[in-house]
Amino acid sequence: MRHAKPRFRSGRIALSLILAAGLSASAAWRHVVADEDPAETAATDPAPVVEDPAPAEEQPADGKNMSIDEDLRDKVEVYLLPKLRTTGRNGYYITARIKNISDEKLAAPIRLAVLGTKIDGLEVRDADGSLDGGQPFFELIDEGKGLAPGARSEVLKVVFDSQQRLTAAALRGYELQYRVTREGLSYADRRQDQVPQQVAEDDENGAKDDRPLDAAHPDVRKIMQAQQEANDKLLRIDGVSGTGIGLDPQGRVVMKVYIARLSVAEKLPAQMGGVPLFPQVMPQMRARYELLHNGAQAGNAVPQPPVPPLPPCDVDLVPCNLTTDTTIRIGRPAPLGSEIQNIFDFPCFVGTLGARVTRNGNCFFLSNNHVIGGLNLAFPGEDIVQPGCYGAPLDTVGHVADVAPVFLTPPFFFPFFFVNRIDAAIASAHPFRVDRGTPCIGYGTPISSSIRPALGMKVQKFGRTTHLTKGVITDINVFVLVFYGPGVALFRDQIFVSDPSFSSFFSLPGDSGSLVVTDPGRVPVGLLFAGGGGITVLNEIDQVLDYFNIRIDGECP
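Given the sequence above, the corresponding structure tokens read:
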């Protein structure tokens, strides 16, 4: 069933300023405690680290927010720096180490996994590896070493990044939630691991089940039914931010429950609808636009009228664009992955030109509502410029044509009366202004057909910020809360993608609107719009194409 079309309203500039104020505020609402992943934002600009504090300032942990695996329980005592210290440039740190209180030598590895901090927008940096649930860890005792009875490990510095300087009240509210464990894999080891494409179970005849783990697979359908029945109850639990279908460490299909902190798992039932629940700590998901502070030129004072039909997108392919910078003005036609912006957005929100599409022989390009649709506030005909921020009317590559509304719920408000499936918008464009493919450094031209997402499917995208990245679909049929600033949106039927090595990010702010395709094959599977904590959220591309009645203008399958 198609969504209702958005109601375009006046007062665009004032409402945009309200949106900007909302984006600068911390997300302090009951479902999610983590803000947008600042470790991602700081990935290219790490904060300097100062010298270690005196160990005398450390104090034994009180155990309130601590979890120690059974094989280490009553064998180690944890010492922590009680307060966060600053490294400068919105960076913070604490120190940690353990003491062997047993009568035997403790063998490596022993790790400190960070599960949360109770401060919005504080994320760890430069971890050594991750647990199977994605939680980062630091090595307390490295492989090949040990800890003698009565000895203390070396001082470990745990560094955090914050998107903005923390207030005194936020610092007072800091509580480190952590786990002392031997589990997990270093990032180097994870690069060599293969994410399972499917569950290798035998049928009654002993044959391997080689069907893709998509919505048509019987194991997935069974969990989808239980998930549908369980969602309402699960989303009412404080600290639960969504559910999905994924694989456990043994490669079995499970129902995942996304939680803000490990303690929430104690509130969950063991199973629902006959299906076991698999809790996974996950930070808050945020829309993937980037706010640039250099301001936008307003361009025309009056919105453009609707653009008349354009020639069909049947022009000959041109050689791929040689550009390596997607944030500058690129010679026309602008390739997929270019930086774009609605010229009337103020302050400047930029995203990615995702795909060239066609409808009834007319040419359009695809991105997100929050990139070119003004988050429901855009008028038909408004200019979309490439590049953003300093773009002028002469840089126009298209005009707003159709917007799928995103229904927001104010923070602290529950239940969620509106459920979204897509965050998308299209702009009319002349085919000589927008290309069908990426620059030469990207994946090329997408295929015109689409494919249903499946667990373990390898994918790739080319975006404005991170360019060409590759990942794996880890979760499907995802119900998830996404933070936009002025409110929270509940989405269903979404896709989660992560870098299989857990060592880099599939996307960063500014990549919103990117088309995600299979790797290899270049078959469209999703539209990128949100993310956080190394997870990227996609709309199913078929939902997007059906809503606008469009098709990808790409190569024949």
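The mean pLDDT is 78. Try to locate this feature in the token string yourself.
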